[in-house]
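> tool_call: predict_assembly(chains=two)
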Amino acid sequence: EIVLTQSPGTLSFSPGERATLSCRASQSVTSSYLAWYQQKPGQAPRLLIYGASSRATGTPDRFSGSGSGTGFSLTISRLEPEDFAVYYCQQYGSSSVTFGGGTKVEIK
Amino acid sequence: EVQLVQSGAEVKKPGESLKISCQASGYRITSYWIAWVRQMPGKGLEWMGIIYPGDSDTRYSPSFQGQVTISADKSIGTAYLQWSTLKASDTAMYYCARFLEWSSPDGFDLWGQGTLVTVSS
């Protein structure tokens, strides 16, 4: 089973800043099968990025994904107030799915 | 409207059984897989398993194999998650989510609103 590690668990930023979140895999992940989700308190997760770098419908273009192999990242170019949330990476290859532990992006 | 609608919150006692549901509308359920995801209080997302309602092909996470049963009734566009013997540690929010196919890069693109299961004596 592929283990995804997101660290640190919490990042603090001011609105308008650039944020880069990390997701490391225990073994190589096919780039096509890496996604990022946003979850706000009391809400279901929402797909932001799929295929490592493709924005899902409705995802603002300030969100971008990159990476390959065992290292992936999600970048938010300029944090808006609504972007403070928890972000999860996910891999879905070889008929198995795993999520990272999540990174909370909080207001500094 | 394309959506997944889950059954309502449940309060159960340890040892009881439970079956929760996830109904698809606005799209053909037999064209997508349906996954189940657990979120324990204050914790992250855990993939439990997935079913293809078209032929009931089902895969489980090793962590949940034997602990739950995933099923589907394609005639009514509904997937299910069930427990035969609940434990207090099953207390969590459970989400269903849509997934196109294993060879597609699309991810879990549609989520239900969640079903809160509370197990307490």
